[in-house]
Here is the input.
Amino acid sequence: MQRIALDAMGGDGAPRVIIEGALSAVREWPDRFVVSLVGIPDEIREVLPREVPDSIQIVPAAEVVEGHESPVRAIRRKPDSSIVVGLGLLGAGEVDAFISAGSTGAVMAASRLLLGMLPGVERPTIGTMFPTTGSPVLVVDSGANIDARPSQLLQFARLGSVYMRDLLGLESPRIGLLNVGEESSKGGALAVATHKLLQDDEDLNFVGNIEGHEIVEGACDVLVCDGFVGNVLLKFYESVAGFIAGVLKAQLDPEVHGEGFKEVYRTIDYAERGGAPLLGVNGVSIICHGGSSARAIKNAIRVAVACLESNMVEDMASEFGLPTRRARVWRRIRRR
Amino acid sequence: MQRIALDAMGGDGAPRVIIEGALSAVREWPDRFVVSLVGIPDEIREVLPREVPDSIQIVPAAEVVEGHESPVRAIRRKPDSSIVVGLGLLGAGEVDAFISAGSTGAVMAASRLLLGMLPGVERPTIGTMFPTTGSPVLVVDSGANIDARPSQLLQFARLGSVYMRDLLGLESPRIGLLNVGEESSKGGALAVATHKLLQDDEDLNFVGNIEGHEIVEGACDVLVCDGFVGNVLLKFYESVAGFIAGVLKAQLDPEVHGEGFKEVYRTIDYAERGGAPLLGVNGVSIICHGGSSARAIKNAIRVAVACLESNMVEDMASEFGLPTRRARVWRRIRRR
Here is the structure.
């Protein structure tokens, strides 16, 4: 049984939406995990139904980190916050994964502090799934690192590759570098240097530069970019569906086509697809959109369980802990 | 009568599509301009109908710059190319504007060389109109400057402001800085330094940072970003409409809703909205998408004429040629 710590206090709809998500997860997948709701017990109990499954527990945490607080200061000043308590449990091995729709910055900072980085990884990265015409593409980094070095982007590529192999079962995920043209000389200093590092890494299936219009074409499985561009793209993508649906609604009869629009929103809305993993830390830490629905929380729990069942963190550790070539051979042997 | 030089050889559909665009422009707006088709006369004549309006002329140019050529080398080695000949005519004052759907890099390099920069402007920028739920937003830079300095981004903002005032008649265009959060401290070194410069410029109506999801909300009239992010966003935006329409088509009956989809494509497809002005050079130089349709070329001619009729280049020169405060007063007096 996997043990999931869920921040009951984080997100716009907390604690109600978070708890609804947890309840629907344990109903849909019974006997696979227990969920510890971390937060203010009175507030949690107010929302919980009278009859609660055994697989739902409450872990008290008296404080809440607010979105406007400076992340590093907040986790220092609020040691009894749901984020610090939940990640503390994970760091101590008392739970197996942590999920929060609270302050992204605070979850990142506390994950780094309480879980530690995998050896050989300099910084954590947020990987977000973008829907495409084919299978989804994992965009690393989606906002954790505004200024990233080429060596760090290479690390993000390797982390993303393991993630897509473990979670989507891809043999050899195609790695693309977001850029403004095909040629290796395109882009600024960061892109040119990163291109070379990706090209030289024999263990990566690097397919070259990916231009803006190729993203939704599913031209790669892992798209590498710095967190500035990744964050802008992510937010832009989320908003565009609503805009385009609006243009269409002005043309079409909305009564008739409600389902079509819902499907569009569902396809594009990344909140609906569950959380984004924080990759590179020594543990499964999932970050959800502040506006997550109960369905998104349920899906984030599914993602956390999939990370655990695929041994994602161990695979990432071996990706970095051994010389890459040996790690690859080792992985192949182990998988037989 | 405005005199427009049109590169007949540039773009995927050249010369046919380009010439069709020119013909439809002179038919739709007769007696307002003459169009000089610059290119290989035989190839142009093959497409031209027998009866050609007087307002269509041919200017011979024996060479064509290809898309794969290095822009600077190409314009040096092909002095008789349609791009160099057309911009040479503009630089010599023999025509009033130049339009090309050929190599963007070559048009930029030749514009810089043959027209020169406006005094006080370091680099040209490409401004592209993005559709939003409100009026369109001009994104500067859309790909001309991969590495830009804060002082250059400030110049792009000022150029964009004049453009939106002159062409869209906005009193005081709202300038936004593309960033990953609201606060002035957000973003990397480039964003933080540019924020300060924009904030300190009393003549700009700076509305602060704009996040990815705010772009389609029409949160500003001019969106400032470096050419890397601008280019990625532009190409991404162009491709997303097709993707989302595809999701909808799978849900809806396409027979019934053809018009709705066409409207979506029309709204999003920036090629349909004509060319993007190259701002900061001393002349009206319009860059069109390589895949421009005849309609896009027609619209680019309309944009060029609007630039000329609004005295855009003169207004930009006075924006930079006089101390900003004086220029503003001067503009106000002149407009009375």
Remarks:
- Chain A has two domains: 2-116+280-309, 125-268.
- The mean pLDDT of chain A is 90.
